[in-house]
């Protein structure tokens, strides 16, 4: 034992050298994120071969993103170098290798459980708990009896969720295949020393603080602050005995039984590994529980909330609570009324059409297609449940170049047809309709600020600004089932330019791709699109708002280069001063989908909503006019003007109508 401790001191003295020079992995270069243009394509980095193999890079959200497939090593105190990654050391047991954090059972002894943690195998016994009277015998190869219904204390346990006892957090119940299994197992032996261990509130087992890397010595077992040679045995604590076998510490730990008494009646005694129940004094024996003036008899249960339930036992409440899981990065949490835990579901897909016009497909491709005519934006290929078409028109305003805008949107869903028009006008099955509009079982149409939102019964949502910005979000159930200008929503950006005949074309064949989705007059769709000349038009400097401080939190997650390019293109053929706002709006909405909050982007980019514009005009009025009612303001404004004749009013009306025809897209 003393020899081991002396040699351990020698190893500690060269740890820093090993960490500095002993790594077999070349360090990754540091610097700013590199932008890229070809979304979804592999990117050649020019790094050495080992880094290229270990960190494959692709173009994602306009940035070069190199995947790090290495497992997490936080809280690991025996980090070793693999070919590509630093990993937590695994274990060798009976000739088989197991990665760290792996748990398994012996087929011949299903009530023994084994777990590998950072080079240490912990062997312990399972203790079963059956919270029902009509339990079912254990399945072949399993240890514990199960309950036929997933309930505990009257609380329904959701599938694949853990329910933990507040009295003993090491007792866990889990519902699987509509059967409830409850058990208790010992905590694994940790590689870190006691002073480096911590326990989170409500958790059963301690964890390690930080990480530790050491130089491994052949035929030796490092554990906590000591190490032992193969064949050596030692007692780690009063409940744990270990042996060094094949450079793995194999420890047998006593698993304490489940106690049927309140925590305050559980006592530990010298020389005993586990606490035991002590009997209360006769005068302390109570057979009922009280809460908020109500009396609960022994055995009664009550629901504390949707996540917790309690049972009266020997005058004390014993409570169990559901432990919720976290969602993966590409998932979102969906709250379900009446359920404790949110459901993890895939993120919705989002397609946008904006500006002159530019498109962002469901899978992330951004392109410009200035086709005139009617086109299939989205279509459900398999079930034909819904389709969305857009009508693009050439628009020439006074003193501006010709541009193409998305003028109308046609939504077909079952027997209904919605037509979204300019200035947020709506037609329902061919007739003008007022907003809001609800058709039970089909759609809900509402106005949210300056936007019109249509939510279909199948959870498809269409957002329209009444000018030329359109966004469609679809749930994951439509993955791989769509086609049109928005792509096929299959997660692969490389095949987004798929024509109606199924042919996949490249960037240079955008005209043939877009034209293939024509659903209107073929003569209009086949019209040659003139290339845009980057001169004249309005000053594109307003596009600088994309680099405003209000977007700073999003810059690291989503490149603004393609939105900036789209913005400049729009301003060169702009019919009004606010053409840049749609590119900025498209970027802002995509940032928000990535979890970045942008509460004031409209204000900071001077793309105010209608309500904000009205408030700004009121603030700019003289102070003695601000508090006047609107009707009084009109009287003040026209008090010096004589009452107009009927013919004068008619002429003004006709002039106004002609103005609307010449300029159908006013933006304030």
Provide an overview of this structure:
The strands form 13 sheets. The chain has an 8-stranded antiparallel β-sheet with strand order 34-33-32-45-44-43-42-41, with helices on one face. Helix 6 (561-572) runs antiparallel to helix 7. The protein contains 12 helices and 46 strands. The protein is globular and about 90 Å long. A hairpin with a 4-residue loop joins strand 3 (79-81) and strand 4. Among the domains are: 2-77 and 79-88, no CATH class; 347-531, Mog1/PsbP, alpha/beta/alpha sandwich (Protein Transport Mog1p, Chain A, 3-Layer(aba) Sandwich); 532-631, no CATH class. The chain has 668 residues and is of the alpha+beta class.
> What characterizes the major β-sheet?
8 strands, antiparallel
Number of DSSP helices? Answer: 12
CATH architecture of the domain at 347-531: 3-Layer(aba) Sandwich
| Estimated radius of gyration | 34 Å
* E-strand count: 46
Output the strand order for the largest sheet. 34-33-32-45-44-43-42-41
Low-confidence stretches: 1-27, 531-536, 626-668
> What is the highest CATH level, the class of the domain at 347-531?
Alpha Beta
Q: What's the average pLDDT?
A: 80
Shape verdict:
globular
Beta content: 25-35%
CATH topology of the domain at 347-531: Protein Transport Mog1p, Chain A
């Amino acid at each position: 034992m003393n020899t081991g401790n002396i040699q351990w001191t020698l190893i500690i003295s060269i740890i820093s050298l090993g960490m500095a020079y002993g790594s077999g992995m070349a360090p990754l270069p540091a610097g700013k994120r590199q932008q890229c243009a070809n979304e979804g394509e592999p990117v050649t980095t020019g790094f050495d071969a080992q880094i290229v193999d270990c960190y494959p890079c692709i173009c994602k959200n306009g940035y070069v993103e190199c995947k790090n497939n290495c497992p997490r090593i936080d809280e690991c105190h025996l980090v070793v170098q693999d070919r590509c990654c630093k990993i937590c050391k695994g274990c060798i047991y009976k000739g088989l290798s197991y990665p760290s954090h792996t748990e398994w059972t012996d087929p011949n002894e299903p009530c023994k459980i084994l777990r590998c943690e950072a080079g240490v195998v912990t062997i312990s016994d399972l203790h079963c708990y059956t919270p029902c009277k009509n339990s079912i015998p254990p399945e072949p190869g399993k240890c514990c009896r199960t309950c036929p219904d997933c309930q505990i204390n009257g609380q329904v346990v959701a599938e694949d969720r853990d329910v933990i006892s507040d009295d003993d957090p090491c007792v866990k119940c889990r519902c699987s295949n509509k059967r409830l299994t409850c058990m208790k197992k010992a905590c694994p032996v940790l590689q870190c020393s006691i002073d480096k261990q911590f326990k989170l509130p409500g958790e059963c087992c301690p964890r390690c603080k930080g990480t530790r890397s050491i130089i491994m010595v052949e035929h030796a077992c490092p554990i906590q602050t000591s190490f032992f040679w193969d064949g050596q045995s030692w007692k780690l604590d009063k409940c744990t005995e270990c042996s060094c076998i094949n450079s793995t510490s194999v420890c047998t730990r006593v698993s304490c039984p489940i106690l049927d008494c309140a925590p305050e009646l559980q006592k530990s005694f010298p020389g005993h590994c586990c606490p035991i129940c002590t009997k209360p004094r006769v005068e302390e024996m109570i057979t009922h529980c009280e809460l908020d003036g109500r009396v609960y008899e022994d055995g009664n249960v009550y629901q504390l909330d949707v996540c917790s339930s309690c049972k009266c036992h020997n005058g004390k409440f014993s409570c169990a609570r559901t432990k919720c899981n976290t969602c993966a990065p590409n998932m979102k949490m969906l709250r379900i009324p009446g359920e404790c835990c949110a459901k993890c579901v895939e993120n919705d897909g989002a397609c946008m059409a904006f500006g002159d016009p530019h498109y962002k497909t469901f899978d992330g491709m951004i392109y410009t297609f200035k086709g005139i005519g009617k086109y299939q934006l989205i279509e459900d290929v398999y079930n034909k449940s819904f389709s969305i078409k857009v009508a693009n028109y050439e628009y020439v305003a006074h003193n501006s170049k010709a541009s193409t805008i998305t003028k109308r949107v046609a939504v077909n869903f079952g027997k209904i047809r919605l037509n979204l028009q300019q200035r947020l006008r709506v037609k329902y099955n061919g007739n003008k309709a007022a907003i809001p509009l609800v058709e039970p079982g089909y759609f809900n149409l509402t106005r949210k600020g300056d936007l019109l939102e249509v939510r279909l019964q199948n959870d498809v949502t269409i957002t329209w600004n009444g000018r030329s910005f359109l966004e469609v979000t679809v749930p994951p159930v439509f993955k791989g089932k769509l086609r049109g200008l928005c792509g096929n929503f299959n997660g692969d950006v490389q095949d987004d330019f798929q024509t109606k005949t199924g042919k996949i074309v490249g960037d240079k064949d955008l005209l043939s791709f877009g034209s293939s989705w024509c659903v209107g007059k073929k003569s209009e769709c086949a019209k040659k699109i003139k290339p845009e000349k980057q001169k004249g038009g309005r000053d594109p400097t307003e596009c600088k708002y994309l680099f405003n401080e209000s977007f700073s939190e999003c810059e690291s997650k989503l490149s603004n280069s393609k939105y900036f390019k789209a913005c400049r293109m729009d301003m060169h053929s702009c019919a009004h001063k606010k053409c840049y706002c749609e590119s900025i709006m498209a970027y802002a909405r995509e940032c928000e989908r990535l979890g970045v909050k942008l509460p004031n982007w409209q204000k900071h980019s001077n793309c105010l909503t209608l309500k904000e514009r009205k408030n700004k005009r009121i603030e700019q009025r003289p102070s003695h006019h601000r508090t006047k009612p609107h009707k009084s303001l009109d009287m003040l404004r026209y008090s010096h003007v004589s009452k107009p004749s009927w013919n004068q009013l008619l002429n003004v009306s006709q002039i106004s109508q002609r103005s609307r025809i010449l300029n159908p897209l006013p933006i304030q």
